[in-house]
Amino acid sequence: MGDQDTPREACGLFGIYAPGEDVARLTYFGLFALQHRGQESAGIAVSDGTHLRAYRELGLVTRVFTEPILQSLTGHIAVGHTRYATTGSTNLRNVQPITCSTLQGNIAVAHNGNLVNAHHLRAELEAQGEQFEATNDSEVIVRLIARHYQGDIVSALRAMMRRVQGAYSLAILTPKQLIGVRDPFGVRPLCIGRLDSAWVLASEDCAFPPIGAEFVREVQPGEIVVIDEQGLHSYEGLPIQREALCMFELIYFARPDSHLFGNLIYEVRRRMGMELAHEHPVQADLVIPVPDSGVPAAVGYAQASGIPFGEGLIKNRYAPRTFIQPDQRLREQSVRLKLTPLREIIEGKRLVVVDDSIVRGTTTRQIVRLLFEAGASEVHMRITAPPIRHPCHYGIDMATLRELVAAEHTVADVCEQIGATTLGYLSIEGLMRASRLPQHRFCLACFNGNYPIPIPDDVELTKELFEHAEVVSK
């Protein structure tokens, strides 16, 4: 899907405690495996047991970290972060990990998620004399930890967790410790791996094989995991409220080779496609995916329907993610930079086109037009996510309510707007059958409006105030 019409990933976290290893280089490989979770910036912080060093910059992991930079990041503990901005704009001050000095030494924090009460906490801290450098909600977490860190990091983290509301998975570096923290609802993922005698943290377990690590378990909601020279220690930060993992991790965000709740994501998505075929059958000649996220579901749809699977769209994997905004004409034609139809394959065919979601509808409309222009006789869109009718406040940069095409339009209306022959969304019930897990273990708020973490009435102020802080600080 295109940049203008897709749920945006929040961030990728990686951490490692490995005496005797080149932790900066291992973190580099881990972040490279998590690049799909954020492409705007990357950073690594390391500790040698006494001093912290960090390097952060805008851009992809492979462009940010050169060989001399990696060689300068010496130590045996590291945390890394790859970012897509949700709160706070894209500039160097918002690049993570965020470092902060405390009475117990410097700390570095990498955050995935979004707080719903960040503007209240920031205003309170500023009134108490705190001077913020960044314009994101992650610095609120860092400042709260620093304020309470008086020798016992677990007590400081518990104090922070009692104050913040929202979604957060954290990878934290102190001079002598690597720490993982997950909010009591577990909205954003975080897991633990093992590399010989070393310990590893990552947003997804797909980051483990590139460095030779093996998956151990997921960090539990509300859990604090502290790793030091004595090994791994688990503490309750807050009592678990209920599991509420973001369902979009299964639909779109996580890499197909990752596992969540013990399920291979590729297989979950394949089953989503099979459920789609049962819920929305159609007479057609070919099933094609919108690459890459639609591939497993398209395979499943073809298997369940008996319609042949094929590739009808080829993705240009080098189409740039640019910080320079194109003009309106190029923005409207952005899909043509990324996807090329195979006319000889699709001409005259009735197509089932499988994609993961429709947010605004702009990109889907361009894809449908592209296929018709290439000679398709029919285009039947099949979507593995239910209609997105409510905004996300927990770390996905989803459009506002007024921009969600399904919020105020029927399926028939959306079908007409995108120009498809037919349109079918997977139901929530079909989604749960594909996951093979109970509904209460997931956050489905963007589909049904049931937010597991209460949303303050003035939550929209968070984005507005942080944007205002950005303008003032320039």
CATH topology of the largest domain: Glutamine Phosphoribosylpyrophosphate, subunit 1, domain 1
CATH architecture of the largest domain: 4-Layer Sandwich
Query: Which spans of ≥5 residues are poorly predicted at pLDDT below 50?
Result: 321-326, 465-474
Spatial order of the strands forming the largest sheet? 3-2-4-1-10-9-11
Mean pLDDT across residues: 90
Largest sheet: 7 strands, antiparallel
CATH class of the largest domain: Alpha Beta
Distance from first to last alpha carbon: 33 Å
Q: How many strand units?
A: 23
Instruction: Decide which structural class fits the backbone.
Output: alpha+beta
* Cα gyration radius (Å): 22 Å
- What is the CATH homologous superfamily assignment of the largest domain? Aminohydrolase, N-terminal nucleophile (Ntn) domain
Oligomer: single chain
- What is the count of helical runs? 17
